[in-house]
What we know:
The chain has a five-stranded antiparallel β-sheet with strand order 5-4-3-6-7. A two-stranded antiparallel ribbon has the order 1-2. It has about 180 residues and is of the alpha+beta class. The protein is flat and about 65 Å long. It contains three helices and nine strands, in the order ββαβββββαββα. It has one domain (about 35-165).
Amino acid sequence: MHLNKLCCCGELQGKSHKFKYQQSVNILRMKVTRIQLFVIVFILLVAPLIIYKSIWLAKSVVTKGVVLYTNHTLYTRPTQYYPVIQFTTDKYVVKVSGHYNAPYKDGDSVQLRYLPNHPTSYKIDTFWNCWIEVFIWTGFLLLFAIFFLARDIVPDKIFLINKHGIKIFGLNEIASK
């Protein structure tokens, strides 16, 4: 990390006088390696996901629901089954569909989390069900960041495929033609 001083000079003009001023400004310069940049960008992209999910969990209410019956999909092969769960809030009795192929049977008790102002925004209260979106988006962001920050993934050659075989050109060879 380097700290440089930048000198700014100028003139201020008043009613009848000109004032000269000089001001020193500290500028912070820092060299960042490719790995450090990757970590910084990754943290900046993942932090909002974790904060959003943490706020959702803090505002949510835990309740017990009951599996009313198990329903199935109509137009997919193979047929998938999902539970229909009912739970009670302060104002409403809410019926929601559970996850496909969940291991619940009719009459099972299920612990749920829901937002009081949006009772249909719910999650089955397990670690995996509450945090799956964060893991999925983090995985996508990680793949995206690795692809664009890794130099060796993007080749510096162009491959020409025709009926005679594969010919490899370097970018310098193409620029010279």
